[in-house]
Amino acid sequence: PEQIDKVGFEQREGKLRIILAALIRDLAVPMIERALNPLLERNGLTRGDIRFWVAHPGGRKVIDNVQKQMGLTDEQLRHSKTVMRNYGNMSSPTVMFVLDEVERNGNPQAGDWGVMIALGPGMAAETALLKW
Question: Whole-model pTM?
Fold first, then answer.
């Protein structure tokens, strides 16, 4: 709630436009970790157990900051960066494009773990645990 004006939508001239405050890149990691850490703990997992990081890129600066602050590699975020490069930030559907990219080009195997991370209006972070 304290960040409600940082990410959202407004209607201008009959078009829906996304609102993205510049400081999102700084807010994203604490929000993600607040959702991610309990998810992993509840399931007895660590970040090292996660093969696929299905992360909403948010924007180039956002995903670069997430990578740096969370200690993730280019390989771990390659699917997110591919979607960002090819399609840009499409708002909510972006994370589903990343999941599709993982399915098509990541070669997930039975038993592989993944984490889906989405960022949304009101500066919310949502996570989901995935298992192939």
Answer: 0.83
